[in-house]
Automatic annotation (TrEMBL):
Belongs to the glycosyl hydrolase 5 (cellulase A) family. GO terms for molecular function: glucan endo-1,6-beta-glucosidase activity. Residues 69-351 form the Glycoside hydrolase family domain. Gene3D superfamilies: Glycosidases (3.20.20.80). This is Glucan 1,3-beta-glucosidase 3.
Length: 490
């Protein structure tokens, strides 16, 4: 895909994604909101349990129509966030051979709600509404046929069988293909769909099996829409799945999704909050080194890295009682993700109930001062009419960077095309400014190019000495951001 193919959707998809998860909307989680479970069948922990309970259709429809309202969309956009990740359940308007589907005995319940009438109901409406606010949408298949992990948020309270049942894996691809076809056919185009995540937190019986399934799914989806970014969960084996993406031919943007939590394991519980924070801010520590390494690898491969779920939650055993525990931990994560990732998504947007939860609930975190009131880059004045200064500055910085590049590689004899570096620098600078100026509203965050390596690959057909072009492109993007920040931001 080139910039000229679809400018608006390209801006949405390749910008730096600063987002939040809309948890427990279309995939229920009782710890987030208890209300939909009041008539659920035992054990009353999953969507299927609600579907098997009393008054299921009215309960579900009431929840879907009230959990996220117009005021919520306004709140999200006013905080500088530009994207939401929407977990989705797999129950769509298909028949799985008329059998096996665990929801089949209760399918009538869904005849007028989201799961059963996807094309005309609430998920599409959510995407449309997000677009009105300039928000991108990452669609996340949180609950797949057969259940891809052992958690209740995978749609049922039954044991998982996704990886032991070939029909579940085949049907999941059918679900994804139908969803993509539905999105692709929508009029007007849903340009704010930034990607589709194939599976949330899969727990494979073997990594080879998951990678084979990923390869099939990527191929089948790319046939339908070769421009749609595809997000892949890393099973907390980030190096291994980054290598998989690097070695996988792809026409669409591939994005590795890593989830970071530090409150579940025994070692997490015994580690003080200050140590958790230092482990994320010390550049020589394992996690920052891993992020830097993976980000560089994926960027060079024309792919990207995001943190699809993270929070400010720490186990009580880690806390000292100071509000700075959570505030510093959140700040450390934001700093890490800004430095190395193309996007991040806080889990979760809100929780029901009387008790505040500044670790898991973004609204409470902002209200409590442990999460910044706004994120992103904001301009204090317009850059319009300043093209001559920008061009002069660009060319001066390009020539300086080219001289340094040429001098460095002169120490290593070889065949080079240093003009490719200069070309990349200029295009990188100009494209960065294209993102900065895509929105003229000073009350909204400036859009920034986030998937730099992937975008660079769309900007040239000349693959000779591409590494020099890409190297120059990165430096041009970085120089442009520094220039924009210095001249137009507060």
């Amino acid at each position: 895909m080139t910039v000229q193919d679809n400018f608006e959707s390209s801006i949405y998809r390749f910008r730096k994604q600063r987002g939040v998860n809309l948890g427990s909307w279309f995939v229920l989680e009782r710890w987030i909101t208890d209300a939909p479970f009041r008539y659920a069948a035992p054990p009353a922990q999953s969507d299927l349990d609600v579907a098997r309970g009393q008054n299921a259709r009215s309960v579900l429809e009431a929840h879907y129509d009230s959990w996220i309202s117009q005021s919520d969309w306004t709140w999200i956009s006013d905080r500088g966030l530009n994207t939401v990740r929407i977990p989705a359940n797999w129950i769509l308007p298909f028949v799985w051979g008329g059998q096996i589907c665990p929801f089949w005995d209760r399918i009538r319940i869904f005849s007028r709600c989201f799961f059963w009438r996807l094309g005309s109901a609430r998920l599409i409406k959510a995407i449309e509404t997000a677009q009105e606010f300039g928000l991108g949408v990452l669609l996340d298949l949180h609950a797949a046929p057969g259940k891809q992990n052992s958690d209740a948020h995978a749609g049922t309270s039954n044991p998982p069988k996704f990886f032991s049942d070939r029909r579940s894996r085949m049907h999941t691809i059918h679900v994804l293909r139908t969803l993509v076809a539905c999105l692709h056919a929508h009029t007007p185009p849903l340009v704010n769909v930034v990607g589709i995540e194939l599976l949330n937190e899969p727990q494979p019986s073997s990594d080879a099996e998951l990678k084979n399934w990923y390869t099939t799914a990527i191929k089948d989806i790319s046939v339908l829409d070769p421009t749609l970014p595809i997000y892949l969960g890393d099973c907390w084996k980030t190096d291994q799945y980054a290598e998989y993406i690097k070695s996988t031919p792809h026409s669409s943007l591939l994005v590795l999704d890593h989830h970071l939590y530090r409150c579940f394991s025994s070692s997490d519980i015994s580690t003080p909050a200050s140590a958790h924070t230092r482990a994320l801010t010390d550049e020589n520590a394992a996690i920052p080194r891993m992020f830097a390494r993976i980000a560089e690898m994926l960027d060079s491969a024309g792919a990207g890295l995001v943190v699809g779920e993270w929070s400010g939650a720490l186990n009580p055993g880690s806390l000292t009682g100071s509000p700075d525990d959570t505030k510093n931990y959140v700040a450390a994560q934001l700093q890490l993700y800004e430095a190395h990732c193309s996007g991040n998504f806080f889990w979760t947007y809100k929780k029901a109930g009387r008790h505040r939860d500044q670790g898991w609930c973004l609204r409470d975190a902002v209200d409590g001062g442990v999460f910044p009131p706004r994120v992103g880059l904001f301009a204090s004045r317009s850059s319009d009419g300043d093209h001559e200064r920008q061009t002069r500055t660009r060319d001066n910085l390009k020539n300086k960077a080219l001289g340094e590049h040429t001098a460095y590689w002169s120490k290593y004899p070889g065949k080079y095309r240093h003009e490719r570096f200069a070309e990349g620098f200029a295009i990188g600078w100009d494209d960065a400014y294209t993102f900065f100026t895509a929105s003229s509203r000073l009350d909204r965050p400036v859009l920034e190019l986030g998937f730099v390596g992937a975008w660079a690959k769309t900007r040239t057909n000349d693959q000779s000495s591409f590494w020099e072009f890409q190297h120059g492109f990165r430096q041009g993007v970085k120089a442009a951001r520094n220039d924009f920040h210095e001249n137009y931001c507060w």
